[in-house]
Automatic annotation (TrEMBL):
The lineage of its organism: Eukaryota, Viridiplantae, Streptophyta, Embryophyta, Tracheophyta. The chain crosses the membrane at residues 15-32. This is OLC1v1022005C1. Heme binds at residue 431. Keywords: Heme, Iron, Membrane, Metal-binding, Monooxygenase, Oxidoreductase, Transmembrane, Transmembrane helix. It comes from Oldenlandia corymbosa var. corymbosa. GO terms for molecular function: heme binding; iron ion binding; oxidoreductase activity, acting on paired donors, with incorporation or reduction of molecular oxygen, reduced flavin or flavoprotein as one donor, and incorporation of one atom of oxygen. GO terms for cellular component: membrane. Belongs to the cytochrome P450 family. GO terms for biological process: sterol metabolic process. Its cofactor is heme. It comes from the Eukaryota.
Length: 486
């Protein structure tokens, strides 16, 4: 739970005054710089906190989009507010998405809130200037591009089979969300870290759960706050990953492991024209954390929603099952899935895409203006934060007919309005891990529908955003194993 204003004011007044001064002075300077400019309409809210608590409260009630729609109705598609300790401009619509994803990186930079930036680290992909972003993204894509990922289909297949045998087979009831997190963490641990199942994996998964707690919070580093717990967990995670970096560098030097064993070995093996490392150890650690967080939570959320969708709509389940059974019939017993098998799962991926449209794992994102930027007749001052919820366009009835209806036919002709479907971002900064997410999602759904039947246990399927979607009861289901194809 976030620290509330009443709790803060129970602290010793001198300590509180010192903290407030440290936070308010930089904020005051930025506001003063923007005072004489043509700023968007809107209120900055309370000092330091701004509208942070209001937004987080709305997200936790799964009303974040409604809260932002009210702003749009009141102020229009551009307005100013205060979020997470910084003056902020909120922008909305397909044009806003296009502006963010195509704007010159020397004008508008990836810049997450202080809470995210301090927890993940300054050397991560989302914080880099264009020249560094290009270098680091290029290094990541040598591993995450489809041609490179093909060799890991078998690894994903093996992890999924082990997971289902351990956690699903023989069970009459189970809770989906935590199991999907377990699965995606195991897959990512194998492919990103190269860590086998055991104590190291078990300790890392608990640490990363703590890292996520304070990702979107007021960045006040005080005892018992989510931000403090996340900072501490992040330091532990980075220490473990740095140990892995050192171990793998030694193993590579001794030719004990392949440069393509996992993401870390891949990044360590990339050299420039002078045979020097392309990435520093700190860049490897911070960007491994980014890939871990993105791959772990977003894919597990997508899989959880797909289980719910398939349980609620028998017609969709039947079509997915038919597609997957045709693939299963072409396989010999115990033969793993291949890249070509995944390419045949076209309808299943349309179901996943529609799920991403209606239930996007990531609700909002941030950038920072590196210079004064004119947008829609207003000035976004240098140093201000740009905030947008790109996924709001995915439920816009002006773009999608009957947007609350689950309709896979929307993707048979493609998206009509550019930058309206942005589940994987857009432009040069689109998500580098989208192919890995597709591989993992399709493989898991294949084994689920061919190996199990299920139905929802309760009517309460509601979820909150904290900041990612979390089902209130974890989505419990009644489970029935088919003749084992695992």
């Amino acid at each position: 739970m976030l620290v509330s204003p009443p709790l803060l004011f129970t602290m010793e007044s001198n300590t509180l005054y010192f903290i407030v001064c440290l936070l308010v002075i930089p904020l005051y300077v930025l506001l003063a710089k923007g005072a004489s400019k043509r700023l968007p309409p809107g209120s900055m809210g309370m000092p330091i906190i701004g509208q942070s608590l209001e937004l987080l409260k709305a997200m936790r009630a799964n009303k974040g989009e409604e809260w932002l729609k009210e702003r749009v109705e009141k102020y229009g598609p551009i307005s100013k507010l205060g979020l997470f300790g910084k003056p902020t401009v909120f922008i909305h619509g397909p044009q806003a998405n296009k502006f963010v994803y195509t704007c010159d990186g020397n004008k508008l930079a990836n810049h997450q809130p202080a809470s995210i930036r301090r927890i993940i680290g300054e050397k991560n992909l989302f914080e880099m200037r264009p020249e560094d972003h290009k270098r680091v993204r290029g290094a990541l894509m040598t591993f995450l591009k489809p041609e490179a990922l093909k060799q890991y289909v078998g690894t994903i297949d093996e992890e999924i089979r082990m997971h289902l045998k351990k956690h699903w087979e023989g069970k009459q009831e189970t809770v989906v969300e935590p199991l999907m997190k377990t699965l995606t963490f195991n897959v990512i641990s194998s492919i990103i870290f190269g860590i086998e199942q055991g104590n190291r994996r078990d300790s890392l998964v608990k640490i990363f759960e703590s890292v996520m707690e304070g990702m979107l919070s007021v960045p006040i580093n005080l005892p018992f706050t989510p931000f403090r717990r996340s900072l501490q967990a992040s330091a532990k995670a980075k220490s473990i990953i740095m140990e892995l970096v050192h171990e793998k560098r030694q193993d590579l030097a001794k030719n004990i492991i392949s440069p393509k064993k996992d993401l870390i070995t891949s990044l360590l093996s990339i050299r420039d024209e002078n045979d020097l490392p392309v990435l520093s150890d700190e860049e490897i650690v911070d960007n491994t954390v980014i890939v871990m967080i993105a791959g772990h939570d977003t894919t597990s959320i997508l899989l959880t929603f797909l289980v719910r969708i398939l349980a609620k709509d028998p017609s969709i389940y039947a079509k997915v099952l038919q597609e997957q059974e045709e693939i299963a019939k072409s396989k010999a017993n115990e033969e793993p899935l291949t890249w070509d098998d995944l390419a045949k799962m076209k309808y299943t991926w349309r179901v996943a895409t529609e799920s991403l449209r209606m239930y996007p794992p990531v609700f909002c994102s941030f950038r920072q203006a590196l210079e004064d930027i004119e947008y829609e007749g207003y000035i976004i001052p240098k140093g201000w934060q740009v905030f947008w919820a790109a996924c709001m366009t995915q439920m816009d009835e002006k773009i999608y007919h009957d947007p609350k209806k689950f309709d896979t036919s929307r993707y048979e002709e493609g998206t009509k309005t550019p930058f309206s479907f942005v589940a994987f971002g857009g432009g040069a900064r689109s998500c580098p891990g989208n192919e890995l997410a597709r591989m993992e999602t399709l493989s898991m759904i294949h084994y689920l529908v061919t190996g199990f039947k299920w139905k929802l246990c309760c009517e309460d399927e509601s979820f909150r955003r904290d900041p990612l979607p979390v089902f209130n009861q974890g989505l419990p289901i009644k489970l029935e194993s088919k003749l084992s194809l695992l």
